[in-house]
Amino acid sequence: MTNLDIAQQATVLPVDQIAVRAGLGPDDFETLGRHKAKLTYPAVERLTKSDRGKLVLVTAVNPTPAGEGKTTVSIGLAQGLNRIGKRAMPALREPALGPVFGVKGGACGGGYSQVLPMEEINLFFNGDFPCITSAHNLLSAMLDNSLHSDNPLGLDMRQIWWPHSIDMLDRSLREIVVGLGDGNGPTRSSGYVITPASEVMAILCLARSMRDLKDRLGRIIVGVGPGSRPVTAGEIGVVGAMAALLRDAIRPNLVQTIEGGPALIHGGPFGNVAHGCSSILATQCGLGMSEYLVTEGGFGSDLGGEKFLNIVCPQLGTQPNAIVLVATVRALKYHGGGDLTKGFLNLGQHICHLRTYGPPVVVAINRFADDTEEDIEAVCAFARSHNVRATVCDPWHGGGAGCEGLAAIVDEVAAEPSPFQTIYENSDPIETKLELLVKKVYGGRGVALSRAAKRDLAWANDNGYGELPVCVAKTQMSLSDDPRFEGAPGDFDLHVREFRLSAGAGFIVAVCGDIMLMPGLGKSPAALRIDVDDDGTIRGLN
């Protein structure tokens, strides 16, 4: 059976019943159909100030192209915690249309560890992504209108930084020319980023309130003006209108797991080009509603995991009580060139990285049907040799029952307080932050900056942005910036081709290797397999 088959056969409860299970009152949520809801502003304000539960971060080793089931494990772990008598819920990112119609298909978990209704979550879920895309493009339109209207801010036409955005994979939009035709100018180069890579997405996911959202929107840098000074969205005068578009998108969404437990789904920055985590508001609300809040960092611990710990946690004001590192025999063999033992080098680097922060680390081996007991035991033995607990789980076939063992270990290791430290201090120079990430997270040698990156960095330092955290945009397929370097390559430099300042989000993006902020479709995209029956039933959505 496919994910969609299982989801369509599942019993989906009315969302008001899910709200009751989450401890919400009738004024705490607004229903959007039978099975979805948004938390109200008063509920968000109350829950973010409530006594907090325990936080569990789920991350992973470097994946195979198909992924290793990190979302599936996150949902299964929350279900498993509920089965052993704990009140738990997942807080996950919303799926983006680009991957849904591209290579990976849907992003609601899998098998008997899914969030429902999966078709609606995967497609225009509660309108959040369209709101973010529209807010981004409203700023683009107002910027172009300002340029057309005699450029009162004196923007340098060669240094207009704000792109356009669309929630689709379309390589033809990476570099474009706008303003062609009589009266439509000025003509200039521009481009598109996919919505999960938009700074508006990052801002929404890091904002702690509507006031904070507006302050961050106002700090967006759209380009450079006279004297090489940054020109902001606040100077364009569009912050209020952007906030109006985001009024409802900022509120976390309430849905359910396939086992009828509450789940929060909110925000969707990619882990390889953005910070890769669900919203701070969803995490805070979930901590106020449960004993355990399970969240995930996109892709591996070298991407979304690292960014959650170094960028999000300081702003969240709390730390994980436990970190779950998802590994599969398939991924370790992939990164070992077919040799499981060589793949242990990749697992070992991720374990060493995560232990740096302080909270206990648990290796969760996501079981696949063709895994042998010998291989699974070898992975467990390797984890034990690094002084971390390891266990096998089967969220796809077993749901919460398949994750009870993992849940029991997480509950045990999270019982005691643990220290926490980030990889770097914000006061460290940006070059130092990158060097620490390369050495402690990726296991590499150093950093190589292009001429453009050096120029970008000098501008950022000169304009007072040198103490921002660093968000590394790189391939998820390797600890390095080159997807061909599998396993734990070690003796490499991280090649930074440019820096992009996300002043509103509060970090600087180091764009590395050949990573694209607007991915393209593959030769056989998932869109070719998706259809709708005459009765409105969707088919082919993975």
CATH topology of one domain: Domain 2, N(10)-formyltetrahydrofolate synthetase
Discrete helix count: 20
The CATH homologous superfamily of one domain is named Domain 2, N(10)-formyltetrahydrofolate synthetase
Mean pLDDT: 96
Main beta sheet: strand number and arrangement?
Answer: 12 strands, mixed
What percent of residues are in strands?
15-25%
What percent of residues adopt helix (DSSP H or I)?
25-40%
> Low-confidence spans: pLDDT under 50, at least 5 residues?
none
What overall geometry do the principal axes of the alpha carbons give? globular
Which CATH class of one domain is shown? Alpha Beta
How many extended strands? 24
Distance between the termini: 11 Å
Q: What's the architecture of one domain in CATH terms?
A: 2-Layer Sandwich
Report the radius of gyration as a whole number of Å: 22 Å
Secondary structural class: alpha/beta
Describe the protein.
By secondary structure, the chain is of the alpha/beta class. Among the domains are: 128-245, Domain 2, N(10)-formyltetrahydrofolate synthetase (2-Layer Sandwich), CATH 3.30.1510.10; 430-512, Formyltetrahydrofolate synthetase, domain 3. It is built from 20 helices and 24 strands. Strands 1, 2, 3, 4, 5, 6, 13, 14, 15, 16, 17 and 18 form a 12-stranded mixed sheet that branches. Helix 3 crosses helix 12, helix 7 packs across helix 8 (199-206) and helix 9 packs across helix 11. The longest helix is centred in the first third of the chain and has 21 residues, at 128-148. The termini are close together.
